[in-house]
What we know:
Blueprint (H helix, E strand, L loop, with lengths): L28 H17 L20 H6 L8 E2 L2 E10 L2 E8 L2 E9 L8 E2 L3 E6 L9 H16 L20
Antiparallel strand pairs: 1-2, 2-3, 3-4, 4-6, 5-6
Amino acid sequence: MVALLGLASCKEAPPPPPNEPPTASSADPDEIVLLQTQRARAALAARPADASSPSAGGDGGEMAGAEVLALLDGLKAGDLLGPAKVVHVGAVTHGSVVIDVEEGTQRGGIFFVKLGGGPLPPASSDRYAVYYRNSKAPNAIPAAALRTVCTSLADRLRGTEARVPPPSGLTAFATDQG
Length: 178
């Protein structure tokens, strides 16, 4: 599985113990980013053992449901977000929606949450914050390209957010998520 690990300037840390949600004890921005990274790792660990990896061309986990697809105006594998092609649109997991993308042989991921709390996102709409996941893998999409992908997703969200309610389970980037 591709190592997905964090946001810009995020510290690396081991995932939380199984079935134990991570918590943050302060409003320290590095601790908050680290917490969200741990949640993303926990979401990946919770995927079924037989789920294919996006890098192998598989589905990468649970597919987005109707609520997410409505908000994303039908975004699906093969569609473009900026310079990158969508590989997988995930369901709401641990309060966020993860979208795996590729650009040529490079891979990356972005996710969105409700706007509010957390570090300043690379892109946002009126209601949603869009972030990218850093990877140190040699085939990772560079951060600058992922910021463009985030902006493209935020633009797409702006087109639907006034008429489509947030998907169930989607939360803001917060220290008390569980």
